[in-house]
## 1
Amino acid sequence: MTPDRWIVTFAGMGLVAFIIWFFWLKRSKGIHAAETSGGYQEAMILVKGGYTPDTIVVRAGRPVRLNFRREETASCSDKVIFPDFQKSADLPTGETVAVELMPKQPGEFGFSCPMGMFRGRLVVE
Amino acid sequence: MNMRTEAAIPDYPPGGLGGGPESLTLRIGGMTCAHCPPAIEKAVRAVKGVQATSVNLATQTAKVDYDPAQAKVPEILRAIRSVGYAAGTATMRIPIKNMHCASCATRVELALKMTPGVVAARASMAPNAVDIEYQPERTDFQRLRTSIESSGYRVAEPKVKPTDETLDPAEAANEQDYRSLMRRFWLAAVISLPVMAFSYPDLIPGLREWMPMGSGTRRVVWALLGVLSLPVLLWSGSQFFVGMWDALKHRAANMHTLISIGITAAFLYSVVAVAWPGIFPDMALAEVFWDVTDVVVALVVLGLALEIKAKGRTSQAIKKLIGLQAKTARVVRDGKEIDLPVEEVLVSDTVIVRPGEKIPVDGKVSAGSSAVDESMITGESMPVEKQTGDEVIGGTLNKTGSFRFTATKVGKDTALASIIRMVKDAQGSKAPIQRVVDTVSGYFVPSVMIVAILAAVAWYDFGPEPRLIYATVILVTTLIIACPCALGLATPTSLTVGIGKGAENGILIRSGDALQAAEKLDAIILDKTGTITRGEPALTDVVVTPGHEETVVLRLTASLERGSEHPLASAIVKGAGARKIELVDAEGFAAVPGHGVSGRIDGHDVLFGNAKLMRDRGVPADVLLPQWERLANEGKTPMYVAVDGQAAGLIAVADTVKPDSRAAIEILKGLGIEVVMLTGDNERTGRAIAREVGIDRALAEVLPDDKAHEVQKLQLEGKSVGMVGDGVNDAPALAQADVGFAIGTGTDVAIEASDVTLIRGSLMGVVTAIEISRATMRNVRQNLVGAFGYNALGIPVATGVLYPFIGLLLSPLIAAAAMAFSSVTVVTNANRLRFFQPRRTGT
């Protein structure tokens, strides 16, 4: 192989390794939802190119209120779906929409936009 | 709705301007039981200054006597709300024109607070409006307007607008997006044409000579093309970069990522080729790909625009439902008819509806009668007769007469609002089949990036010359042809259309799970009463002995039964009414408990009841025995009639089969579904009904608790079981079944109790529900096969796997076109479901 081929091959492998690490291997630890005086575990989630934060840690057996605020107009993110809780909510741009859930058992429950491009996790401890 | 806001209750001077005690009547919402009034009374009495209070459950009102010097109206309202009830105030936002300063706001507030009936007012400059909480029975928009105008300010527009506002915010945003995308498309398209022409001068005779390979002219022209393409990349394609950046911040990748990398790679290669042609060993390598950038952006943007249009159509059903909501209502307040926005109608208001008008909220007819077209909610095309005491549903259309009704449910509690909420939720839910896609789509885009890099490297290392160009083209094509959107859209768009289609036909499918489960049903259990049959007895047969006339016997019996409270009696009276027989009053009416009734009509002694009554009174009735047995075997309840001590005939009453039950059961069997009937009735009645509707497997005398057990038994046979019941005593069986179909009629829709709710009481709804589920799931599969197949074929072809065999290499331009239209195809296919037509029986 000529040197330019070696360079291209190594650069390609390096990029592949970077993609695997960047998209799949590094996971966020998430944030703990704040407990309000009303007994809710509450968190604010910004919807813009994804969910920020995308991992919310809560305790089982207590109601959870996630306030979604969408600040973009991409049509994919106009809804958020919690398949395990059979819940969904429309997210009009610029409005804060609360989704209330009651996680009974510990576990990890995903939520996403209808097309699954935006993903988040609710970690119930 | 932005017209309504939850106004806070500020502190302000007591309701009255001094003087003696005042009395206040408030409407209370949310009272459901006898425990409610004491709780409210206790809370209100705790307010300092309240002297007496009484809460009436029937009229849903509270009367409060209070000393205005000590108690404030807002405090009383707050006390009621603190125990969980809605105090009957309404809120209204009135826009004001010339309120420019903080002191203006204060003046408006003050003027309103002095107005009787106003509980709270908060004016603010930001929306330039005042939010007013008020008691609708004491004031209205006109009076509030007068108060505002008397303080020197102008109301910007009247609140009551008879116009239909159909454009909802989401639709408006979509329309805006569409227009913006189309503008970007046109720019890219117009620029693409010259760029394409000058990018391939060797193919065009005149140009070839004018700008030969390696010439300075060619370099200058190509440089100009690059400058021309810049707006396409940076403006028409800007959303791809923004989308990629937003996603990268979340360590995610999406369609934008693929397109951005693809067009950037093509663009940068071209920049290098024009700026430093010397670095390429062969002049032929110094080619430009501006055309790729421009055409890819144009096609993908066009695809996105078309997708928005097509997606807008998928939710047409829900838009129709929302459009059904009436905007105004004519309500009687203080003896006067006034037009109010529908949000201000309160429970127990009297509402007037004229012919051709929409019924604004749910209620019970209190005077008048009419035919009402309920097809928009129930799917039933025949108008329904409404008389005093009948329930009417908000959003339905009054056809012939005028009537008044008492509002029973308003706002978000109405049947229509619940239906809209439920359909929206269901449309947003996922079917289990989607889980595969979910798993795939999380890995899809990064995988495509890896595949594209590996393919490009392979082409560079082992491909034919010019290697660099081939590698670049392969990288760009592979990135661009992959379409995660088609995959992501496949299931949700079909579900949205399918569930909406159900709602249009009076079938509320609660979730994607239910829709998918309904497709696979092998067996359906039908509860007899109220499902196959009407659930209320009706007159079926009149048999007479020689010498008696049918109409006479029926007239005598029905006249006698008019005095009876027995449920069978009303069936006979109704039956006589249907045959236009005039009834008279009976003399000496007497009921013989458990046996029958007797009395004197038109000078005849009439006796009506069972065989024992006849025996006790010495009436020889054996001659009617064969007829009695025949009727009983048909599942009817025959009873003897004796006139002047002689057996005159038999009158039979039965719970009759709904007109289309038989047809529906036949279709279900034709769909390959085993149909089983369950009933708590006796064996004979059960068998007779089963025979009549063509059911082979019928289980009689089943206790309500055992119904769930029967469902389980069928499930143990390995079947997927649907249960159809009226949703009240069948609840455990409905829950046990794989799909529970609740038959709800009118406003008593047991929406929360089942997987599928049939608003119309017909079994044909079950057929339609199953057919919709089958059609939708078929559509989902077509979409999934299309989307997976497209990517599974498109990506390898784009990497050039076919090149060694048949020399096929995709052009990035074709890849872009395929990508743009793959998702449009998926959405268009889902839209085909909109043409689904349910089967109709002849009835």
## 2
Amino acid sequence: MKRLLNTLYISNPESYLSLDGENVVVRRDEKEVGRVPLHNIDGIVSMGFAGTSPRLMGYCAEKNISLTFLSTSGRFLATICGESKGNVILRKEQYRISDNKEQSLRIAKNMILGKVYNSKWVLERTIRDYSLRLNTEILKEKSEYLTASIKSIQQATAMDQLRGMEGEAASVYFSVFDTMILQQKDKFQFDKRNRRPPLDKVNALLSFTYTLLVSMCKSALETVGLDAYVGFMHTDRPGRASLALDLMEELRSVLADRFVLTLINKKMIHASGFYQKENGAVIMEDETRKTVIFAWQSKKQEEIVHPFLKEKIEWGMVPYVQALLLARYVRGDLDAYPPFLWK
Amino acid sequence: MTEYKEEDYLMLSGIQHFSFCRRQWALIHIEKQWDENVRTVEGNIIHQKAHNNMFDEKRKNIIISRGMPIYSNSLGTSGECDIVEFHKADDGINLVGEEGLYQVFPIEYKRGKEKEEDADRLQLAAQAMCLEEMLSCQIKEGYLYYHEIRRRTKVIVDNELRQKVYEMFIEMHQMFERKYTPKVKRAKRCNACSLKNICLPQLNSVSTVQEYMNRMLGEDNE
Ligand code: SF4
């Protein structure tokens, strides 16, 4: 399997990135504060506005290193995108499918099955691991609802119907999200999902982690030659990486949500690392963001066995493998798209 | 004989991929997927060296030309020769601006050592066929230079090899026309394949997605 290379995250907004030989050099106030060889990096994510030299952009585009700019709060701004992998044939097929309701539905259905299945197993695992600590009744009940929901999703005949089922399943799942917070409960509460802006610390963490995940999905899709902007379930909207959002659905709960729960439950982050704006928006302190990124990096290194390929890979490779499998289906090598089903 | 249009020329070096695995060739040349692994990066560095010298070298009886662009109308291919050596010989051809007659020898640099498969020989033969067409000469042999063992191996460009090259290019053009990528046939060669991460040959041995979904979603337990 392809090697998991590192992603370089730049979290200080004052940082300016440039190229020196085969290295990326990080400068702050004209002073060099870091230098990393580019040969074992497959992506750079820069959070802030200070900028990047055109030469570094060119190098990244040429070497297929993704270069993504996020705002300090983690909102997606731009990405440097080189000559797209010349795989027009694959892309044309992708566009054909995205214009075809039935074919799009087939893929979207499997992705949503993956999403609901995985969120169900996040609940189930909490039940298994903490049966002595919490009222598992309520989790069990929601998990059963999700099991039923999986059955109905399999019967879905139209995209809108599928979207409706997905929305319901998501709200059932999030209705017990707070139950899975076992530590620092008085400081980290979750009521419901909100994002623009996140109104509590848990939502701030979720939003930020989703941004990291979507940027992984995006580069994974581009790497295998698919167009990250043309989706099957998320409809086209200028500037929206619809296919990356599609792909992310099945990975949200297993990769991002569980990660956020671990941060809180293992007390890796603290309530003092957040502040609230006058309008209620909750923002992470720089230090907290650094901690999250650091933990995310080690999460990406953890190994698992891919449920379909039965091959050992790192968590960080999962978006890439799923993108590859999707490309293989689009190309006609597989009988369907196999979502990532994680128990 | 078929004459190909210039825009339909295929990359000459593709014949190595094609003879190694049809699917690998299609992934690289039709679908433009390329996984630069260590192997190919190394290969590039060696090639850069061979091409580095922009100036041609002249020794007493030999002219060495590096990075010569070549093509063949009848094969429908174009590419480059690492090195073409022109040796002074009575039964050779004349060259523009040079005195005397010369025989032509293509030389191709390869990393690693001599292989059992025909890939390298086929590529060299294809180069020879291009040169013959361009220079209107006859080439009986060329050389493969293997970096790892730092040795030249002589390759006789005989009829059998030519025929193979010729047939392969016909097959390549047909496949390219259909934009067809053959399905995986998992084989021993997959282990050494630089594209196995994209090709995923192991997919052949996993279950169908339908079975996988049924198994995971537990439908068959009902
Ligand atoms: S992995 Fe095997 S089947 Fe796939 S391209 Fe390589 S040699 Fe061919």
## 3
Amino acid sequence: MLWIIPAVQTVHILSVSIVMASMAMLDLRLMGLVGKRQPVSRMVDRFVPWVWRVLLILVATGAILVIGEPERELLNWAFRTKMAMVATVSLITLLVQNRNQRDAAFWENHRIAAATVGAVSLLLWVAIVTAGRWIAYV
Amino acid sequence: MSILRLCAWLESTQVAAAIRESTWLFPTIETIHVLSIVLVVGSIAMFDLRLLDLASRDRSVTEVYDDVMPWTRASFVCAVIAGGLLFTSSATKYYNNVPFRLKMTALLLAGINTAYFEFWTRRGIAAWNRAASTPRAAKLAGGISLVLWIVVVACGRWIGFTK
């Protein structure tokens, strides 16, 4: 059925929109660039639960796309790089959430660590979307 | 000059030829287009969900608006520039493409919905900025916007699957 792959890709991209916008806001806040009206802990509590929920949809739709065209994905270096980056950024996000749960002021008190984590996470997300688009071209 | 002739002229420009003939230019511009669109859709969805009373209910409507809209606008400008360049590379083909036309129609409707919200609904915002519930007109604006942006993304993806 010709419409399945574009339909699943559409759900995948819409889910990426939610994760990307949420993480961009949080990462820029960690870097101290935006949203200073709210404490970091508030933004972690607001955005990270959405990211985890939507990540499940991303994994499910991604799995359907891999099953639909396994050679296109599994043998593709852009796909493999993307998966490695998704794993890395997930661990970073877990770390952000974990420190925040133990001490709500942690990221406010560790500005340099917060800025570094935010910058790395943001770069990884941009790279993930880029790698995702390049699966079709490499 | 007819639109089709305008498209043919766009396609004949050096910029269009460069994008068409390069192996990496089209995917690179397309990546910028996708990155911009996910930021447009993700950020506008945050505001739409606030208008629908489905998220950020502990924050006033204007607070969410001020936090989110500058990003939506900046990303939208990037999406239009990148999208325009992609269009130029095969303008006549896209002009005749059904999902492309649907996408442009949805964008136009989203623009009208936004203009209506900005010029009419938002005028009375002081009355419901921190109210327990947003008025029906605001909920309608948020709901219409969400649906139209989903259509934009779906049609955009569909373009890639048509000749």
